[in-house]
Design goal:
By secondary structure, the protein is α+β, with helices and mostly antiparallel strands. It contains 18 helices and eleven strands. The relative contact order is 0.09.
Length: 600
């Protein structure tokens, strides 16, 4: 647990540094359109030509069309604007007129002017640029030139300002609901963990009460529906969770539905989106896309064997794997809604229809988004129980590959297109951090617990059945007790990366000489106290305790002997493994292969 805690803490520290460095999310380290009145002035005037605007060599403007390159378009540089009197005076007067009612002081107006009119360059100050006489001529809405100090077109300013305000409001709400969901899910786990740890530290303070008994009888222990509990439903449709877990999953799904459906607004006329339908598609797409990233990070956290929440809450890994699957399903549905919303937007007749969609699909960010949604959908579809039972290795490999592909696709969908302006990449950082922390913790434990090596496992076939008896002699036995399981690795079978969980059937602190016909394999194991306490029957102190071991005998191949001596005065634990079609089947075949049989 210590190594996973350290890695988990380092991951959170790196994320905190990222937010502190200004690479956070909207509302938490990043601001969007903070000075919308100034920005609206800028956007209302920025498209107008000035007398210093550079035009292409051919002065015939009639040859320009929407498909021409940007290099052939008229260009107005920052140097041009900082030296152009009509631009500076029109901007200064617009800021004064528009931002004063919003409570902007002259100092803040000057800062806005420096940012939006001068683009941070040196030039006349805000007070120097204010016209001595207020302009009286308002620019027409279809104006193309700014030749004199003028009033910004009021309708264009109102439309621009309203568009920016509504879009920024929506982005702040997307982030707010994402953070709220995150704190509800993780906060619930931490609060329950606090209760569990306090009960462990002060066992006398948590005396059973009639309310506790009723909760255990009607909520904590029964199946959600009927009498099935932790056993497959008919047709292997899935497992029926406990009533408490089922209620938690239901609340989680309802929260996601609510957060995906509320607080949408609209501002029309809009400078970006011609109709309310197109505008709402944008907001729904952004909301569900962000929530999908949030739920993906939660799913990755819950899937980890070294998930620190297992140790804190005392919940079993089975519980967290159930939560992992539902978080992944919700994330997948939100990704599909995200893709559908943008497809509807780009194919909408008010938004250029099919022509616009074909143009967007040709963009790398768009087809990376399609790849991400498809990969996530396939990962969820291939995780159904019948496939996991019958073809576990296929499920595991495809699951890992598809999730990595979906995360990579999300990165190329977001960062090259949006950059770091909206902070969407932070949710991907969290996904990468949780996944890397779990993998790093596994590697650290294998290296730490195997620095001395020479750990052995003895595998014996029980005659007349497909049961294998495995005895492991670990270097560390702290924490072995009832209700626990171990993850076994058998590198000698050729798949050094593959491990599977098995329940511990028995254990002992000392062993004696035994004699059997067996095969001794290179092996490693990981002991996990995910369910039970200790041998003394006291309340459990660690709900997740891993010990990783790797044997290092002189030969990597099987060693066949008639009399295999178990180490004296050494602790061990025993497993009973039923051979199936995967690694356990390979282990049974390895044991019974003629080349490994005793020739004496």
């Amino acid at each position: 647990m210590v190594s996973s805690s350290v890695v988990f803490g380092l991951s959170l520290l790196l994320l905190a540094q990222d937010v502190a460095a200004g690479n956070g999310i909207i509302g938490f380290g990043l601001s969007l359109y903070q000075d919308s009145c100034c920005l609206a002035c800028h956007d209302s005037l920025a498209s107008l030509y000035l007398n210093c605007t550079t035009f292409p060599e051919h002065d015939d403007m009639s040859g320009m069309d929407d498909g021409m390159d940007m290099e052939a378009m008229p260009m107005t540089s920052d140097e041009c604007r900082t030296s152009n009197k009509p631009w500076l005076q029109s901007m200064a007067y617009c800021i004064k007129q528009a931002c004063t009612p919003d409570g902007y002081t002259e100092r803040r107006q000057a800062a806005c002017f420096n940012t939006h009119a001068l683009s941070g360059a040196s030039g006349p100050s805000y007070h120097q640029s204010l016209p001595a006489t207020a302009p009286t001529v308002e620019l027409p809405e279809d104006a193309t030139w700014l030749n004199a100090t003028s009033l910004v077109n009021s309708h264009l300013y109102h439309t621009t300002h309203g568009t920016l305000d509504e879009f920024s409001r929506s982005e702040y709400i997307h982030t707010r609901y994402s953070v709220i969901l995150y704190f509800i899910v993780i906060g619930t786990c931490l609060l329950w963990g606090l209760k569990t740890q306090l009960a462990t530290l002060f066992p006398g303070a948590s005396r059973p009460s009639s309310l506790t008994s009723k909760l255990r009888q009607y909520l904590y222990l029964p199946a959600f529906l009927g009498s099935r509990h932790l056993e497959p439903l008919p047709g292997n449709l899935g497992y029926m969770p406990s009533r408490a877990l089922g209620a938690s999953i239901g609340i989680y799904i309802i929260l996601n539905i609510v957060f995906s459906s509320i607080s949408f607004g609209s501002f029309q006329p809009n400078i970006y989106w011609p109709t309310m339908r197109v505008e709402l598609c944008e907001y729904v797409g952004n909301r569900t896309g962000m929530l999908s990233l949030v739920n993906m990070s939660i799913a990755i956290l819950f899937a980890g064997r070294n998930n620190i929440l297992i140790a804190i809450t005392g919940w079993s890994q089975t519980t967290f794997m159930t939560l992992h699957r539902w978080a992944a399903r919700v994330a997948t549905l939100q990704a599909i809604v995200h893709s559908a919303a943008y497809t509807l937007q780009y194919t909408d007749p008010g938004y250029e229809g099919a022509t616009s969609y074909a143009k967007e699909v040709a963009e790398p960010f768009y087809w990376w988004g399609i790849i991400g949604t498809i990969a996530l959908s396939l990962a969820t579809a291939f995780a159904v129980l019948p496939l996991r039972i019958s073809y576990y290795e296929f499920f595991l490999i495809t699951h890992i590959v598809l999730i990595i592909l979906s995360l990579v696709a999300c990165w190329y969908h977001l960062v090259p297109h949006f950059g770091f302006k909206y902070g969407y990449q932070v949710w991907l950082y969290i996904c990468f951090a949780f996944w890397s922390a779990d993998r790093l913790a596994r590697a650290v434990r294998v290296l730490y617990y195997n620095r001395l090596g020479n750990t052995k496992a003895i595998v014996e076939a029980i005659p007349g059945c497909n049961i294998l008896h495995v005895t492991v002699f670990p270097r560390v036995t702290r924490g072995i007790g009832p209700g626990q399981h171990t993850f076994l690795y058998f590198p000698g079978l050729g798949k050094f990366w593959e491990s599977h969980p098995f329940s511990i059937a028995a254990w002992q602190t000392q062993t004696h000489h035994t004699s059997s016909s067996s095969v001794q394999l290179t092996s490693s194991s990981s002991v996990s106290a995910s369910e039970g306490g200790n041998t003394s029957g006291a309340s459990k102190r660690d709900s997740l305790h891993h010990v990783k071991l790797t044997a290092t005998p002189h030969h990597q191949e099987a060693i066949v002997t008639r009399d295999v001596q178990k180490p004296q005065n050494d602790a061990s634990f025993q497993l009973l493994i039923r051979a199936h079609s995967g690694m356990t089947g390979a282990l049974q075949r390895y044991l019974s292969a003629p080349s490994n049989a005793d020739s004496k």
